[in-house]
């Protein structure tokens, strides 16, 4: 005992005392002593006293079990009834409508024959995506994600095996495993190492605008592009009223975001000029922080897509150089990437004001990093990004829904963060589905997490307005309190839902998509400018005076693409031309209220046609996404085969596995 006391005194600053081997017999004799005492005490009790004690013990155990269950199981809809009415969803879950009917009969996206590459014969001989679908009865999947062993598929398929640049792969791996500092050694220049030679004959040809509406979009594109070319060449954004440029990351964002749009519109001269700028002037020696997500979806995505469409190896080299720097972002204790990267010092960190990363950002880089691995045959890009998806798969979610912040140091969600399909949450859900498609529908946990999330949206976020029964998706504050607020960003969701249905997911998702897209369209149509605001509040009370309203601070329009994106998916998948007509109305409103002298501008208010408060800013995604989706929407035949291509969240098409 003395020995024990001495040790305890010696270790009194340590809260848990662990006996050394020499102390072990002292401790065990103490335990024996206590056990004998307890037995004597028990024997002295009457039978009644014993029964009362045993019953109390059972009740206590029962309570503890119930409490543990509540803490560890996912919250159920009933927990939210105190905050929200039960959603009135009535989708027909037995619909048998076939959305595969819009499979393009003519391969409009085509490779040149003979000289460059043999025509893509054999494609017809292979089972098509539609033929490969599991039969519908197999599609009733569990709504709660099962814990599956997520097998990482091989990064490079048999079909596309470039020569491995072992030196480069080694170099990147050594950088990624630097420990414990995140910074890279700037001396290890990756760009001096030659990239692999791409396969020959990757060039794809497009026929250019065919319909009057497409021609109007090309005219709008050229108006914006010429302003950018004249006043902001090589800068991130155009200031279309004052005629100047603006830099955010100093990476030529508008130019790179526009490359594939020009290629698809068959604007060959414009594409060539921009391509030459990328070759001669795009530099990653940028002495400032860039955002990992934005740089990945816009720059890496834009370069990769330009590579796949044009077959130009210069884009591959630029993609590889950039990916080799960006990959440092994943070097955190949990593997959840930091939000910011300093391209010159090759170091990663969170912003000064917030240690957390954004959930949608860390989970919206996987399509691009996987594609980079496939074309370079360097697996670490895909591995780093896929680890994030696997990690998030294993975190607790609320019926598949996730809070919008996650901490790189711990790998945990910030549980009090908002749950939303809008800003900072949106593309987490989008990339679950798109990754599943990109990997040939072989990684079940991606599909299952997506399906669970769509169920969660229906149960917890979907409501309808009182007056016109408009379907909308609200938010959960603190993971609990329902707010009937919907960002314009949410309007990407109908397109994603429809894409899932086209790939064999349940048909009721299409009803959900159609209802939500109608609401998105109404957020344009019911404004006096015909343009939607950034945020809309919906009304569900019995005495509502309107379906929705807009606060002055939320009334701006940044030329965002999401509604047009969804119109394109719904049109291409259902063939219903009303989506083209809705898009045409929206396009007219953009022309009327945002077209200015040197391009198109964001506006401060959609509420007052006489005072739209132009902001003198044209975001890169207007050319990269909005006008591209208008162009695709107004085509009378599908330009991209959704069997073979998957669009990243910035509208850059990448080959899916089937390609
Ligand atoms: C784009 O950069 C991408 O579409 C992103 O996913 C969301 N925000 C903008 C467009 O609104």
UniProtKB/TrEMBL annotation:
GO molecular function: calcium ion binding; mannosyl-oligosaccharide 1,2-alpha-mannosidase activity
GO cellular component: endoplasmic reticulum membrane
Keywords: Calcium, Disulfide bond, Endoplasmic reticulum, Glycosidase, Hydrolase, Membrane, Metal-binding, Signal-anchor, Transmembrane, Transmembrane helix
This enzyme's EC code(s): 3.2.1.-
Pathway: Protein modification; protein glycosylation
Disordered as annotated region, ranges: 112-137
Cofactor (UniProt): Ca(2+)
Mode of membrane association: Single-pass type II membrane protein
Known catalytic reactions: N(4)-(alpha-D-Man-(1->2)-alpha-D-Man-(1->2)-alpha-D-Man-(1->3)-[alpha-D-Man-(1->2)-alpha-D-Man-(1->3)-[alpha-D-Man-(1->2)-alpha-D-Man-(1->6)]-alpha-D-Man-(1->6)]-beta-D-Man-(1->4)-beta-D-GlcNAc-(1->4)-beta-D-GlcNAc)-L-asparaginyl-[protein] (N-glucan mannose isomer 9A1,2,3B1,2,3) + 4 H2O = N(4)-(alpha-D-Man-(1->3)-[alpha-D-Man-(1->3)-[alpha-D-Man-(1->6)]-alpha-D-Man-(1->6)]-beta-D-Man-(1->4)-beta-D-GlcNAc-(1->4)-beta-D-GlcNAc)-L-asparaginyl-[protein] (N-glucan mannose isomer 5A1,2) + 4 beta-D-mannose; N(4)-(alpha-D-Man-(1->2)-alpha-D-Man-(1->2)-alpha-D-Man-(1->3)-[alpha-D-Man-(1->3)-[alpha-D-Man-(1->2)-alpha-D-Man-(1->6)]-alpha-D-Man-(1->6)]-beta-D-Man-(1->4)-beta-D-GlcNAc-(1->4)-beta-D-GlcNAc)-L-asparaginyl-[protein] (N-glucan mannose isomer 8A1,2,3B1,3) + 3 H2O = N(4)-(alpha-D-Man-(1->3)-[alpha-D-Man-(1->3)-[alpha-D-Man-(1->6)]-alpha-D-Man-(1->6)]-beta-D-Man-(1->4)-beta-D-GlcNAc-(1->4)-beta-D-GlcNAc)-L-asparaginyl-[protein] (N-glucan mannose isomer 5A1,2) + 3 beta-D-mannose
Superkingdom of source: Eukaryota
SUPFAM superfamilies per UniProt: Seven-hairpin glycosidases (SSF48225)
Name under which the protein is recorded: alpha-1,2-Mannosidase
Organism annotation: Folsomia candida (Springtail)
Organism phylogeny: Eukaryota, Metazoa, Ecdysozoa, Arthropoda, Hexapoda
